[in-house]
Write a structure and sequence with these properties.
The structure is a homodimer of 514-residue chains. The first copy, chain A, contains 14 helices and 31 strands. With 514 residues, chain A is an alpha/beta fold. Chain A folds into 2 domains: 156 residues, Glutaconate Coenzyme A-transferase, CATH 3.40.1080.10; 244 residues, Glutaconate Coenzyme A-transferase (3-Layer(aba) Sandwich), CATH 3.40.1080. The first copy, chain A, has an 8-stranded mixed β-sheet. The first copy, chain A, has a 7-stranded parallel β-sheet with strand order 5-16-15-12-6-7-9. In chain A, strands 11-30-31 form a 3-stranded mixed β-sheet, with no helix packed on it. In chain A, strand 25 and strand 26 form a beta hairpin. In chain A, helix 7 crosses helix 8. The longest helix of chain A has 17 residues. Chain A is globular and about 70 Å long. The first copy, chain A, starts with 11 loop residues before the first strand and ends with a strand. The interface between A and B is large, with 64 and 64 residues. Strand 3 of chain A pairs antiparallel with strand 4 of chain B, so a sheet runs across the interface.
């Protein structure tokens, strides 16, 4: 069957029946889903266990079960590997992983897949695990990729059932209260898995800093936690920011950031109480910097900025250019420090941020957002999951959630990466549909989605370099050799869920190249 | 049938089947209960309505439905009356109220009962409404009284279904984020009804201070809120502390506070990381003061104090005598200010505080607590709901939750109130069973529950005036005329639930006196 944007979707993927994407807000609904998993406990129970192995025994973790993790340490995480190694040692087989995201640090998962310890993964697989899985035939069921808000929704809706949640916690007390902003190796909020802790049958907090009761703030609450395990190391905070958090020096990227900022300034949204989200990419960081300078110049005070929390965003708060930061995950240690010290730097969980099945998301209050892409196409569809070679290398993150929410969604991209064009006729994989994308900003000019004639008029009046997307594409295509396209097999490697649980696209096995 | 402490309980009360009390921790269970009520929403929906009447229309509130409220303004609340007056004006009938508590300020509810607007009340009825209901024949079903933790549990378990939650919020934004610690008339945390907002079919925030997005902290989150109504006044914070928050000058009560403190000091619990809960009564406040002085003298730093937050507790935090305050409700404006300014003054909701169906409550971490009583009996059972005249005048509050949780639960009482003895053969109503009561402190000496021989030994070694409860009772009874006892009719006015949902006692209509 074809979904609403014309992508071919099977009726079933593995054991799951599929509903195709119908539109960004086409499936609004109300009612009751799945109850939280609750357990009564006697007075002042001792929850501390001596090791991850002991926690595996105590939770009754066994073959075929689902275990979950958060990614707040990003490429610095040391817990997923420790847990999987312990599972392997115990002889466990056929586990399903439900991480919020895997990173290159988790390349060891590949060996556990080969050994049959892990047979399914639902969650983002950034880097080597994604590349490995893209070869096909590695997992017993296709991966399901979900946005931050989509994963929260799926757990609440019973679409992603968890047997045991393993939660790495920079600081925890013996009763299970845990935070990510204190301890020996703070990483920022760990509330990504607050939903896991509430819906999983068993919850294990893994910490390197067991502190006196009561640890606070309590992203993870004692009432949700069965066991607490103390280990030597849970993560390396120096690698939280791996690879993303550099201010770009590329003239092309700085030009894109400049054009992005100019567009915001002339968008009509640039007034007091203005709000925006920038990510941790080089263009985004530069645009955030430029935007702060423009706000200062214009005397505008924004209501809130969202992130990933970054030093750049913290700077705007400290300069009084925004009143609030809403922070779902920290991208650097400046953000972690600010979370501890500044009450206007507010931790939020992905439910508040972006849960489709809620009466309103923080992303819905965004005036504008700068987001990246691996590809965009002439329908303004955006791909962030695969590259043009078809290999699944990235997760969705908050891309869908922010694009659907922001009044003006801007995709900031260079037209070429190496010799590979970024604007294509049809993206290899649709992550985010064109209906929620308003402006594409390149170093060769800005393209405005035809449904936003209002924006185009404003931009033209301001003298911004507005062009047709097809023209930019043609100009680029003339400069380069045609790219060899991947040849896909039948096997579906991954389903890309829209944030409401419908399937917007699938990723197939790469069999070779044209 | 008789329950585990020998109280006669019917098998049904009104439309409810009853399970009798089986023991303080006899019904621990695990599993899934009732799902939260969720609703999807389009991007940046407008939630502001012009009036409470408009909210009644928008929510579809109709005859026979259940509406809920919090009591964080205590006797200063102005919202319940406004909502009920609007319901009456709309001609609504047969509503069930599910307040966390009613106070004398809500005497107007009596007229709404007489007019048929309100036909059921599940929740504490402090003062005139309780006295009115005690006359019998006023409500279509008996009231159910629950502890703070018990009410939270009941909503999550589906034992108390809510159609519309009306949440008074000292500050809210137009998207529904709301807090009780800011705004024109702050009252302290409003998280008592965070569970209502998540489980009710519709949620309405009623605020007198509509502030720019995003209002934080977010005791109530945008994702749970359907509508926001702005009214002139929601409460008078000067009446939050009504009647409770005075340091006693009574020599008898000061003596009890002194003995309580001496008992704590010699209990074995008085070491570093010590924790305690004191309430807002005169004895409790004095004991908190004395205890602080003892901690300072001994060089002991406590892990946490719980309250109601009071100036007295805030003082201990400021003096460095406790590391943390866990605060479920503020009893004065000093506590509200501290909540805003001191990150070690931590807001908690009743779920974290005391939910029986959770993997651990904050009350379970208490070393000791000082609690009050209207009566105690020779089995150490405690009554806080009725007086010896049988009239239902008080709610349970956190009494059961704290008594069940604390390692040493102390009931601090004068032996006489006016000419009425407080120690009786059998309490008129059992709120809290003797099995979770350790020490009764009176001005005539301390009585230790026989199961706590360890405490008795320590107290005797310290030279504290330890006596048998029966001896104290006999001494008092000799001094006074026998009290005329109430004669009860058959009609059940109220069921007293233990915190697990079982029924520990019932309150019957008072027909006259012996």
């Amino acid at each position: 069957m074809k979904n609403a944007i014309g992508r071919e979707i099977p009726e079933r993927i593995g054991s799951r029946e599929i509903v195709g994407f119908q539109g960004a807000f086409a499936t609004l609904r109300e009612g009751r889903k799945v109850p939280r998993y609750q357990k009564g406990a006697p007075q002042n129970e001792d929850k501390v266990l001596p090791s991850i192995e002991a926690a595996i025994d105590a939770t009754g973790l066994s073959d075929g079960m689902t275990i979950s993790f958060h990614h707040s340490f990003r490429d610095g995480d040391l817990v997923i590997n420790q847990v999987l190694d312990a599972c392997a040692k115990k002889g466990l087989k056929d586990l399903r992983l439900l991480p919020t995201a895997l990173f290159p640090a988790h390349a060891g998962v590949i060996d556990h897949i080969k050994a049959g310890v892990v047979s399914r993964i639902d969650g983002s697989m950034n880097g080597p695990v994604g590349a490995f899985v893209s070869q096909g035939g590695k997992l017993s069921e296709p991966t399901v990729l979900r946005s931050h808000g989509g994963r929260w929704r799926a757990v609440e809706a019973g679409d992603a059932e968890i047997d045991v949640a393993f939660i790495s916690a920079p600081q925890a007390d013996a009763y299970g209260n845990a935070t990510g902003i204190k301890g020996k190796t703070p990483c920022g909020s760990i509330s990504f898995v607050a939903v896991d802790a509430q819906y999983a049958k068993k919850t294990v907090v893994v910490t390197s800093d067991l502190a006196p009761y009561p640890v606070h703030p309590m992203e993870i609450q004692q009432g949700w936690v069965d066991y607490v395990v103390v280990v030597d190391e849970i993560g390396d905070p120096e690698n939280i920011a791996s690879g993303t958090l550099r201010l770009t020096k590329s003239p092309t990227r700085l030009l894109i950031a400049r054009l992005t900022t100019d567009a915001v300034v002339h968008s009509g949204y640039f007034v007091d109480e203005f709000s925006f989200q920038g990510g941790a990419g080089g263009i985004s960081l530069a645009a955030t910097k430029y935007l702060g300078d423009e706000m200062e110049k214009a005397g505008i005070v924004g209501s809130f900025g969202m992130g990933g929390g970054t030093k750049m965003l913290v700077g705007l708060l400290q300069r009084g250019l925004i009143r609030t930061i809403l922070d779902g995950q920290a991208f650097d240690l400046d953000a972690v420090r600010s979370l501890r010290e500044n009450p206007a730097h507010v931790m939020i969980d992905p439910g508040l941020y972006a849960n489709y099945d809620s009466r309103g998301c923080a992303t819905y209050k965004l005036d504008t957002a700068f987001l990246g892409a691996t590809e965009v196409d002439l329908d303004f569809n955006v791909n962030v999951n695969t590259h043009s070679d078809g290999v699944l290398l990235h997760g969705i993150g908050g891309h869908q959630d922010v694009a659907a929410g922001a009044s003006m969604t801007m995709i900031t991209i260079p037209t070429l990466r190496g010799r590979i064009p970024v604007i294509v006729n049809s993206v290899t994989t649709v992550t985010t549909p064109g209906e929620v994308v308003d402006v594409i900003v390149t170093e060769r000019g800005l393209a405005v989605n035809p449904k936003r004639g209002d924006l185009k008029e404003r931009f033209l009046a301001a003298g911004l370099p507005i062009r047709e997307l097809a023209d930019i594409k043609a100009e680029v295509d003339e400069m380069i050799q045609p790219v060899r396209k991947p040849v896909f097999g039948d096997e579906i490697i991954a389903a890309i869920e829209w944030r409401d649980g419908t399937v917007i696209d699938v990723v197939r096995k790469v069999e070779g190249f044209e």
